[in-house]
Amino acid sequence: EDISVLMLGFDSTSRLNFMRKLPRAYDYLTKTMGAVVLQGYNIVGDATAGAFIPMLTGHFESELPNVQRKKKNSQFVDVYPLIWKQYKKKGYATLFAEDMPGFAAFNLRLKGFKEQPTDHYMRPFWHAIDEGPTFCYRSVPKHVMMFDYLKEFQLAYESSRPRFGFTFLTQISHDDLNIIELVEQDLLDLLRGMYEGRHLEDTILVVFSDHGPRYGNMRETLQGKMEERLPFMSIVLPDSIKHNHPEVLKNLQSNAEKLSSPFDMYATLADVIGHHDPHLPAPNGPPRAISLFTKIPANRTCQDAGIETHWCACLQWKSIPPEGSVAMNVAQFLVRHINALTEPYTSLCHRLSLLNVTHAEAAEPDDQNGIAYTDVQITIVTTPGQAQFEATVHMTQRLGNNSLTVTSDISRINKYGHQSDCVLDQNPELRKYCFCRTDKH
Ligand SMILES: [Zn+2]
User: Fold this and answer.
1) Least enclosed by CB within 10 Å: which of 160, 380, 405, 441?
2) Membrane-spanning regions, if any (predicted)?
3) Confidence tier at 398 by pLDDT (50, 70, 90)
4) How far is CA 104 from CA 6, 111, 148, 321, 416, in A?
């Protein structure tokens, strides 16, 4: 019979912060419900969209049609091969809910949907009520509205249709590590009600996050950097799967300590409905996406899994002197690179210069096609605006000349707040980099 999937996510919550702040929910999930928590679940891109896109499409954003706002010829997100479309084709009822319309993953930087993407879509509701900074709407906590919406969806279709529900809470955990503890009792009530009420008999429950803390005091520590890369990801299998396919639980448990990623979550969601995506990049070597219901090899590397050096939590880094020539070269290169990105908007954004290098480290030198290279990860502060950036720069040496390239994303590890408001409407891709010439910040 058809297996339903319910996903319940919390923004910016590392595995360890979930354990710290929601210990009773963690216990209930793991001990009573038998959740498997993936300890090697590693992000593959920046921010929420950098998690949702691979998880729901199996692709990097760069592999899909351009859906960025304010870009020429960009399309609506409707063109994305989102996995819920496959669920819908199989007769599933579908739901997509996010609580902060201003921060919505497919709308903040991307163009959003032209047509309603799922049978149940909460965005109009949040637009209709006043999106204030409060955690409640009138007398009801907003997170309770999110929990109820998911639960009512599950119950409404219980006897008629299988379900795919994807609910994601941002407000409660986006800006502060600690506030999420306020949801614990309500989360426990939700889990208990669903589990003890036998409403999850044919349903896989995924409680998860997109990434850990992306900015703030904690993010300035090594611990914070690791936690950003290792979000919470837990999977509860229904008894029907455990009984009929005992190897699935065994494989999932063995994968808990292997390197995994949002691409594997995609393969897992596809596996549930037996969907094989003909558009996925053909593996030239080990597959990038492996269903978590099959065995992930123990010797899997970040490269195998499609995890860029910048995001890989497995690498061994060695500190190098931040004032040394290598670090300074890389830092100056990074500033030039960022200035080049904002170059078309010099009338709006300041040119940045290097204030200092706060941290620098190098990975073991290696070679690719006979060319020696070193990856350097660096944290810098620029002025004006005191932005903190963290980037990984790929350095090859040839004929005595260093050639530098920025690998994948640049992380902005302190809050930009209103610093880049002037560029928001012109090019939201530059929010991380632009320090506006206006004095509104
Ligand atoms: Zn996020």
Assistant:
1) 160
2) none
3) confident
4) 19, 11, 19, 40, 18
